[in-house]
Design a protein that fits this description.
273 residues, 26% helix, six-stranded antiparallel beta sheet, 16 strands, Creatine Amidinohydrolase, globular, alpha+beta, four-stranded mixed beta sheet
């Protein structure tokens, strides 16, 4: 995981939340452009270069670039394909083909605040078993987002994601979790995609969190590839990932990265309206 800040995440002021809203607006617009460029014959590296260009144009910094690890992360974003689950280094040789499941995990730094969100799209066509995987993964995370509210325990969110996923015959990764976010990419609290109702840290109004799950078709066993970053399934089965930035309120959740209505399949790249 990108460098976790052990400090407890601060409750954001109304002024800080306004900055974060603008940051997520920019980040979501860039993400929209990135996914529209996913098409057969396009490489992960091309999407990475486009992310850098769009960040420069918008006056923001790619949040993942040079994040610490065994080696500094070399990309502007993570582009994971099929069995690659998360943190994939975008490579020239990773060329999209029809039927691929492509995860775009992206964030920016704007006025010293971070964003972090992820969506999965299918390239041109979707096999029935992959369609089920996509819909279950998306529904699990969005169902957890709907439970976000002041006073709720993170175990409630994790229990929701785990139950929906496992009832459908899939698994969630337990080695990687959601998190708070703000002036650091990863802040308190950690938000696993598994858990027990009523357990774990308590959400407080003013927190900004990333609710996410990596859902795998097969076993949850993964490994890190030779590039020291890319996490892939050991059995080679496909995976999806969805992640939303959410502000905790007294009434519920304010979704800051509003990507829920995006289609799961990209049929024609830039030709989409």
């Amino acid at each position: 995981m990108f460098g976790v800040n052990p400090e407890k995440g601060k409750i954001k002021s109304s002024e800080e939340l306004e900055i974060i809203r603008e940051a997520t607006r920019i980040s979501t617009e860039i993400m929209h452009e990135l996914r529209l460029n996913v098409a057969p014959g396009v490489s992960a590296a091309e999407i990475d270069r486009l992310a850098g260009e769009l960040c420069k144009k918008a006056g923001v910094i790619p949040a993942f670039k040079n994040q610490p690890g065994y080696v500094p992360f070399p990309g502007n974003l993570c582009v994971c394909v099929n069995e690659e689950v998360l943190h994939a280094v975008p490579k020239e040789e990773r060329i999209f083909e029809k039927g691929d499941l492509v995860k775009i995990d992206f964030g920016v730094i704007y006025n010293n605040f971070y964003t972090d969100h992820c969506t999965t799209v299918a390239v041109s066509e979707l096999l029935p078993e992959d369609e089920k995987l996509m819909k279950v993964g998306k529904f699990a995370v969005e169902s957890a987002v709907k439970k976000v509210k002041n006073g709720v325990k993170v175990g409630d969110l994790g229990h929701t994601m785990q139950t929906i996923t496992e009832m459908a015959g899939f698994n969630v990764l337990k080695d990687y979790v959601g998190h708070g976010i703000g002036r650091s990419l990863h802040e308190y609290p950690q938000i696993p995609a598994f858990g027990t109702i009523g357990q774990g840290a308590e959400l407080k109004t003013g927190m900004v969190i990333c609710v996410e799950a990596q859902v795998v078709k097969g076993k949850e066993d993964v490994y890190v590839t030779e590039d020291k970053w890319t996490v892939a399934t050991k059995d080679g089965e496909k995976a999806v990932m969805f992640e939303y930035m959410v502000a905790v309120t007294d009434e519920g959740s304010e979704v800051l990265t509003k990507t829920m209505d995006w289609p799961l399949v990209i049929f024609s790249g830039n030709n989409l309206p």
